[in-house]
Design brief:
The protein has 374 residues and is of the alpha+beta class. It has a domain of 35 residues. The chain contains eleven helices and nine strands. The longest helix has 18 residues.
Length: 374
């Protein structure tokens, strides 16, 4: 059904024990309990726009919650971002007698942590400049900065804001809330990137999509440009609408068990030494546990009519596994969700479902939903 000749091996170990403590805090597989939790979530929306719920259940303790009315210095201090990135000549040798004028060391000013070795044309984007540009955009756009922090000892800095948009899937209680995520890397070969997080509130599963204008990220070789950062941030507005339309289409599309298993195996399945997909019974835990949850409707939020034997339910069976049943936690988990193996798994699954059920070539009568903006 879906042919993806490329196959990445993701080093993920899944724990499918559904007695996990995080599910004892309001999210259960019992349908009545899930409905009650859904009602509580709707109540929180009226109070604080899901802010507390997302902070507690999505970010996994990474970063610090911040208030939009705080000063820039207060935000940086609360998130432990009140340090600079410095560069120095690269010296080496047993007495440091040699030096390289074409390369430089990039390091964290307060701890001395070496971030990278770069060419002398590479310019660091300082935390204060990045957060200030994001802060100014949030103020002008009328959205609220929610969280700041860093991963991997400061190598990746992030800022997240609550977008004043939510999407009711097929006009039901299945609510998707938007977050705007800006990340800046202090490592060579990586830059500043803006992403859109669409978080499903009943389970805090997240779908992350990059936002760009003709390029993937802002390069450090051109120097920091507040205007360029804000232009990319501005372009994110249509992306959430496009993603919502795609989700609606997936929620309208019925998928039987045979199709679900085929898509999971073909998209996320293991292959043998000859490059052929192995049988389902020999597949990895991600494939098997996602299919089991789909076939038995045991994923969180499966009580919604939009998530009952649909492509949307199948997607959430996968994202629930990588969001909540993986053994990785904290910074390791968030880095993987935004930039690593989990992000690639999610992207492959979204793209596979879009190709199978949204592409005009597969269903010429279906409403066309543009996915190129993702």
């Amino acid at each position: 059904m879906i042919i993806d000749s490329s196959y990445d091996t993701f080093d993920l170990k899944f724990n499918i024990d559904t007695s996990n403590q995080q599910y004892e805090q309001g999210f259960h597989f019992d349908k009545e309990a899930v409905k009650k939790a859904s009602a509580e979530i709707k109540g929180r929306l009226r109070q604080n726009g899901y802010k507390g719920l997302v902070n507690d259940n999505y970010y996994k303790g990474v970063g610090a919650a911040v208030e939009s009315n705080w000063s820039l210095d207060h935000k940086l201090q609360a998130a432990n971002l009140n340090w600079s990135v410095d560069t120095s000549i690269l010296r080496y040798g047993d007495k440091l007698q040699f030096f390289d004028t074409n390369n430089q060391a990039v390091y964290r000013s307060d701890t001395g942590t070496l971030f990278s070795v770069t060419s002398d044309t590479w310019t660091p984007f300082q935390n204060v400049d990045v957060v200030n540009a994001f802060d100014e955009f949030c103020n002008s756009a009328g959205i609220e900065m929610e969280r700041l922090g860093h991963l991997r000892e400061g190598r990746l800095v992030f800022a997240s804001a609550v977008v004043n948009e939510s999407w009711a899937v097929m006009d039901t209680d299945d609510i998707i809330a938007a977050r705007l995520l800006l990340t800046n890397s202090h490592e060579y070969g990586k830059g500043l990137t803006v992403k859109l997080n669409a978080i499903r509130l009943v389970c805090c599963n997240g779908i992350t999509r990059k936002v760009s204008i003709g390029q993937r990220s802002l390069s450090h070789t051109n120097g920091f440009s507040k205007t360029a950062v804000q232009a990319i941030l501005e372009s994110s507005k249509q992306n959430f609408v496009d993603l919502g339309l795609l989700i609606d289409k997936l929620a309208q599309t019925q998928v039987n068990n045979r199709e679900a298993r085929e898509i999971l195996v073909e998209t996320l399945g293991d292959r043998n030494e000859q490059g052929n997909l192995v049988q389902y019974d020999d597949q990895n835990r991600l494939v098997q546990s996602s299919f089991t949850a789909f076939a038995n409707h045991t994923s969180i939020g499966a009580h919604y009519e939009t998530s009952r034997g649909t492509a949307w339910e199948l997607l959430n069976c996968v994202t629930e596994q990588i969001n909540h049943h993986s053994r990785s936690a904290g910074e390791t988990h968030m880095n993987s969700m935004w930039n690593g193996g989990k992000a690639r798994i999610e992207s492959k699954m979204v793209n596979a479902l879009a190709l199978a059920y949204v592409s005009p070539s597969r269903n010429k009568q279906a409403q066309t939903v543009g996915v190129s903006a993702f």
